Amino acid sequence: MTATDTRTTPPAPVAGGAAEWSPRVMPPVGADLTERQKLACAFGILARSGFTENIAGHITVRAGDSGAPGGPGDPESLWINPWGLWWEEITASDLCRVSPAGDVLEGRWDVTPAYHIHTELHRRRPDARVVVHNHPYHATVLAALGVLPEFVHQTGSMFDGDLVFVDEYTGEVASSELGADLADRIGDASVVLLANHGVIVTGATVEEAVYRSATLERQCRLTYDVLGRDRTLVPPPLRRAMKASLLERGTEFFWNGAVRALLRDRPEVLD
Fold this sequence. Notes:
By secondary structure, the chain is of the alpha+beta class. The chain has six helices and eight strands.
C-alpha cells in the first residue's frame, strides 16, 4: 500500500548560510598558520585531492594584502610555487615571491612564465586575491567536451552563478598579452574551465579557494558520470541558500580538517 501525500503547500526552504545557523565553536587546526604556511598547505591538500597533473599548475596569493607575508607597501607581488617541485612536496620555505613581471624577489628557485595566467586576474579583480590553476582529470575531460559541470548534486550549488567556459585554446599563457586576453575572456567569473587545458579557481582567501577547487573536481566527475543519462538538477531557486551554507559554514570545516590530516602526515610542510 502506498502512502498518500496529503500536503497542500510545501514548506518554505531555509535561508541557508550563517543566517540560518552557525556553530558555537569549531575544532581548531592545532597551529597558528602564517599566510605563507597556508599556501604551502594548499598545495599539499589539493595534491591529495587529485587536483594536480604531475609538473603542471600554480597557486598565487597577493603578497601585499593586509596580513600577508609581503607586507604593506608591496601591493603587486605574488607568492607562488617554484618550478621543479611537485605540489605534494612543497613546504613554506620553498615558496617564491615574484613581481608582476615574473622577477623572483624572494626565494631560492625559478618560477614558470605561465604565472601570466594569474597576474592580470590579480590586477583587475580585488576579489581574486588567490588564483588556483591546474589540470585535474575530470575537469579537464569536461573542458575537452566543452561542458560545464551541472548542478546534479547539492554541493555543486557553491558554483551557482560562478561558472564560465573559455572555448578557445591559445597555447601556453606565457606573456602578459596572453594573460590579459585570458582575463578578458574570464571576466568576473570565479570558476573557469579552459578548453583543452584545465581549470582556474579564484577566491578571496586561501581557505575558500582550496575548498572550492577540491569540490569542483568531484562535481566534474559527477557530471561526467551522468552524461547521456536521464538526470535531475538542483532547482535554481534553491541553489543560493545551499551555496551560502556551503561557503559560510563549510569552508572552515573543510580547511581545518584538511590541514589536520595533512599535518599528521607531513608536519614539515610548515617549515
